[in-house]
Specification:
heterodimer; A: 287 residues; alpha/beta; Rossmann fold; 2 domains; four-stranded antiparallel β-sheet; 10 strands; 40% helix; B: 274 residues; mainly alpha; two-stranded antiparallel sheet; 68% helix
Chain lengths: 287, 274
């Protein structure tokens, strides 16, 4: 059974005049435990709304149809109690775009402890989780620092640690790299990958950076509230026309390889990372 | 940006810094009360010495401490001078009689006493609270000290959380203000010339974006906190628990010894009393 199961989801916001404005249309999706999924889409495609629905942080459920199930729990049912919501949020953590607006405390370790404190865990357990979370994101030496003196990437890693410390099964990154410089982005993406590969967390990353999507196991392209493409990165990025139709750019490597093929150069093999790309080109040159 | 200091916290790492902030709040209040108990020359001398001792124990440079005194220097001198002229003692205490101006020796004593009292109150509270305790420690301590008020349905935890968030966001908002000001300067805004009302008006294009952004931040922070299972103070535990240690016990004992010293001097010491 899949960990996240979305069936025929329709969702609309109220526009300024109070009329429904459709954001997600007839969307069905299954995500397995331990998957590393990148959700792509241009601004306004509905990808952030989808993430917020999964964490129940949408305020207005007037125009909601279909069903969302997480770990066997129907989260869209109207008779969900406050405690059910609380249980769900323990399972699915969320990291947002602006690290400044997620950090609550004035000391790094106290911020990481915020989640576990809310769960009412005993002191020793909180200590252990905070230390572990900081170790996973590689920020142990900054535990007593003030967050506002850290770089963007470091702040975002603190925000991730704050989520890890709650030990969720799944972490959703809602454009968590959009405000970072290239170095900060690399730090955060490496952390995502590590969480998936080493700790077996289900990772859903919502992004419009193609280079990040390439590193996931599965890419989902959303346009105008619908799933347009869903598959392995190498399959998705081979469909250059469709990607461009959705207002997205191809990753640099895929673009290069497609252009080379158009010129009649034969290239075989998996092409996702720059390393694979270089290897493939080198092999064809040696032939 | 990094130069912004919250409050006047001075990290010298002294014993005073490591005391339980809850106890420091109580000690600061007790110290203020005791400064009102003093009533003769000897007890005031002891009070003055205790203030010096506090400065020495906390290892705050004298220069830093005197800077905080400077702000209230005027009030100190003003009340002292008033006391010199206003106090009417018995005829044998009369020192100078100059028309309507009469100065009594008791007036001079009172002036000195009041000056010492104000001086010590300021030193006491700033050493106990602002110089050796971070704002965040103060907030934590206040939350715990005021927690009995929860019985009366006063949202103590919520107030403390608001304080913490406010402190957390001061550097962020200051940074943002600087950014907006440079952005407006780049568009030709002038914040430095013209009359006061003109300069105040020039700040409007800074304040409006600042407020909009602050509200947006507040909304995002609330969402992020909700996602991290925040639901008020109910059932929350703490990573860092404030602990009352042997050091704090020594602090309490020293304060008790000081109070008894003052009381004994008040009763038994000779000389003029207020």
């Amino acid at each position: 059974m899949s960990y996240i199961k979305i069936r025929n989801l329709n969702f609309s916001y109220k526009d300024d005049e109070g009329n429904p404005e459709s954001v997600l249309r007839d969307l069905s999706l299954d995500i397995e435990k331990g998957e590393y999924v990148a959700v792509l889409g241009h601004n306004g495609s509905g990808k952030s709304t989808l993430a917020k629905l999964l964490n129940l942080v949408i305020e207005d459920y007037d125009y909601f149809e279909g069903s969302i199930e997480i770990d066997g729990m129907e989260i869209s049912s109207p008779n969900m109690t406050e405690d059910d919501v609380y249980e769900l949020r323990k399972k699915v953590g969320m990291v947002f775009q602006n690290p400044d607006n997620q950090i609550v405390a004035t000391i790094v370790e106290e911020d990481v402890a915020f989640g576990p404190e809310n769960l009412g865990l005993p002191r020793e357990e909180i200590r252990a989780r905070v230390d572990e979370a900081l170790r996973i994101v590689g920020m142990t030496e900054y535990s007593r620092h003030e967050p506002h003196r850290l770089s963007g990437g470091q702040k975002q890693r603190i925000a991730i640690a704050g989520i890890i410390a709650m030990r969720p099964d799944c972490i959703i990154f809602d454009e968590s790299t959009a405000m970072l410089d290239p170095m900060g982005r690399r730090e955060v993406v490496n952390t995502m990958e590590k969480l998936n590969r080493e700790d077996g967390k289900t990772i859903i990353t919502i992004t419009h950076y193609m280079d990040e999507a390439v590193r996931a196991d599965r890419v989902i392209v959303i346009d105008d509230g619908r799933i347009i493409l869903d598959g392995k990165p190498s399959e998705i990025f081979a469909k250059a026309d469709k990607i461009r139709e959705c207002g997205l750019d191809l990753p640099l490597c895929s673009d290069l390889l497609i252009k080379l093929r158009e010129r009649g150069i034969r290239l075989d093999g998996e092409i996702n990372t720059p390393e694979q790309c270089a290897e493939t080109i080198a092999r064809s040159l040696l032939k | 940006m990094n130069s912004i200091a919250l409050g006047q916290y001075y990290p010298s790492g002294s014993v005073m810094h490591r005391l339980d902030p809850r106890m420091k709040i109580i000690l600061a209040i007790v110290y203020m009360v005791v400064s009102f108990l003093c009533n003769n020359v000897f007890s005031f001398v002891l009070l003055f010495l205790s203030a010096i001792a506090l400065v020495l124990i906390s290892r705050i440079p004298l220069k830093t401490v005197l800077r905080s005194i400077r702000a209230i220097m005027f009030i100190m001198i003003f009340t002292a001078v008033l006391n010199i002229f206003w106090t009417k003692g018995s005829p044998e205490e009369l020192l100078i009689s100059w028309g309507i101006i009469q100065i009594y020796s008791s007036g001079i004593y009172n002036a000195a006493f009041i000056a010492i009292r104000i001086f010590c109150m300021i030193i006491g509270t700033s050493i106990f609270l602002t110089y050796t305790t971070t704002p965040i420690q103060l907030t934590d301590a206040l939350e715990q000290l005021l927690s009995p008020l929860k019985v009366l349905h006063i949202p103590v935890h919520e107030f403390a959380m608001m304080m913490t968030i406010a402190l957390r966001f001061i550097p962020t908002i200051v940074e943002e203000t600087e950014k907006i000001m440079s952005a407006q300067k780049a568009r030709g805004a002038d914040f430095t010339s013209g009359s006061l009302s003109k300069r105040a008006k020039a700040l409007i294009p800074v304040l409006i974006p600042l407020f909009i952004s602050a509200f947006r931040r507040a909304g995002e922070l609330a969402t992020a906190m909700t996602c991290r299972c925040y639901r008020g103070g109910k059932g929350r535990t703490k990573l860092n628990v404030l602990r009352f240690t042997y050091r704090d016990l020594i602090g309490v004992l020293m304060m008790a010894a000081f109070i008894s010293g003052i009381v004994l001097l008040n009763i038994f010491a000779p000389g003029y009393s207020m």
